[in-house]
Amino acid sequence: MKNAIINKLQVEIFHEKIDNDFSFFQLTTTDKYISKGAYILDRPDLDLKTLSVAFDYGKSAFIIFKKDDVKSKKEILDSLGDEKLSIKELTSSNIKDYLLLRLFLYSLTNYSSKGLFFNNISGKLIVYSPEWISKNKKSFKALDIDIDRNLALLVSATTFTSVNLIKDKKLLKSSPQYLMDGKNYSLRRVLSSDLSDHIFIKTILGNRKTEIPFLNLSRNSISKSKSFYLYQTLELLNSKYSDYLKVSLETKPIVETINEIKERKIIDQVIGDMRFSIVNVVNLDKDPSDYSYFHDLVNSLMDIVSPNSIKVSNSIDPNTYNILMIHNSDYYEDNDYPDPYKLFDRSCVIQCVTKEDFTTKIDAGNKAAIKTCLKELVIKNDIINTKKITLDNWGDFAFSNEWTFGIESNDIQYFMVIKGDGSFNFFHKANDFTAFEDRRLNDLSNLISESDSKSKTIVSDNMGNTILISRTDMFTLPEKGIFTATGVRSKAGRENFLSGVVDINLYEDSDGLYYNVGPIGYGMNSSISKSSLIYKTQVLKGKNIIKDILKTMSVVFVKYNEFTVLPYPVKYLREYMNIIVNSKKSV
Fold first, then answer.
1. Which conformational region is residue 503 in: left (phi greater than 0), alpha (psi within -120 to 50 degrees), or beta?
2. Domain membership of residue 544 as a residue range
3. What is the pLDDT of residues 212-249, one digit of tens each?
4. H-state helical runs in 87-192
5. Could you report the per-residue pLDDT of 452-484, keeping only the tens digit for each?
6. What is the 3-state secondary structure (H, E, C) of 115-129?
7. pTM confidence score
8. How far is Cα of residue 549 from the mean position of the Cα atoms in its chain?
9. Of the residues 256, 286, 306, which one is the last residue of a structural domain?
10. In the chain, how many domains are there?
């Protein structure tokens, strides 16, 4: 049986040794939160010699000192100058494990390891490399590494941008500013006396996301990924504080793996079927300078489907498929124009593409974007007209029972009931005192309402067995040996180093069944952009049925050439939800 490595920490803490060498204090405010944030750490003009600070819900902060550097409680409060703060001294055993670990993690400041630089600012551990600094030195990428309340080790990519590029004065005023030392790449809080061109705040310009791959399998880049940096951070934590704690990553035994795709040719079949249909393409972008983009869209559709199947017109055709070229929502807000996406008739089969996003993919010759667009049309047509799954042959699963999928969003409950042949019906209502005509749906409605989970996705068979699927903060990691190994993309390499990272994996734990969905292992790309989150399945009634429905995730049409993390009928259900929600906005 293979094991998967997950980001949850196993910890051994030596409290007596810790208390011999370190002192801890808790600050508490009578305000809603500690307004000065981590100034006790960031400000170089405060001679407190604090190792690190960890916040707990904003109202409390925990501080760690070396015994030789500790100040009295009065000296600490006097330095902070906040009359609303109170302070008390604690032993390490009086501090929750996740907060104690944060204090030691955040203290890894002004260290460097294999080209990485560790900085503790504003009660966070920020890790970055000089290679991530832009050529004009106006921004740099970094990793924010943290530990959550469940002892999960978290990592997220962020960006620091020069204050010279920020035009939003409110953002500048409300954001902590940091000065980077160009020699040792350390960060510290800016003082009023500082004059420098290397002052940054933690923000990114525009709507872009900071991209640092979770794992890059190419030999020259394998040590430039989030998973590598997590291992480096743990290694540093263990080596620096080996006398006080031991930290390792948990493993979960994999009880089942699915690595076969149910049907690779579904998208090609969709395109083949489109040759016998008409796709009406409408340009709602009235800017004449954008006509070339619309022309490229039409030509790309003709190349993939056929010229005879493509019709260009000025209006939506309710009797066929429609593709509308519009702008993104920001464009209409900025120009104070009505957004056509909010106005068209939802009883028509329509897929919108935006000039800003979609057309750049066409320019890159990306046929996947066109194929995805056609797939979305088929799903919408199934929902609006056929009332049966035609994108896939549901009968291939050979289910002997009906399945019901349910989600709740904004206090509205939506259900999809699928029969053995793939025909289905949708139902929805507000989460209130009204009732469904079907008693079984009422029972499921009550189960959703009673659940305190943030996730409101349930699956039920017609025997009454019902589970709730919820996303966790846990994710799987490769074996540490992958960073020095060769042949990691081969079958043997995937088995030795990527168990749980690729394919669909089911886990059994003391509190139930879990699963994760990673990239397809066979023929996988060299770069894995995101970690594979683990999903928990909770039995609401009867027995756990996730194993019966797991294969509905081994399709590649929800996400093009990727498995889907939820049973694919949830995709249909969310599309139905969008139709219902936007129908209320239509005029």
1. left
2. 394-583
3. 999 999 888 888 899 999 999 999 999 999 999 999 99
4. 97-106, 169-174
5. 777 789 999 989 999 999 999 999 999 999 999
6. CEEEEEECCEEEEEC
7. 0.89
8. 23
9. 256
10. 3
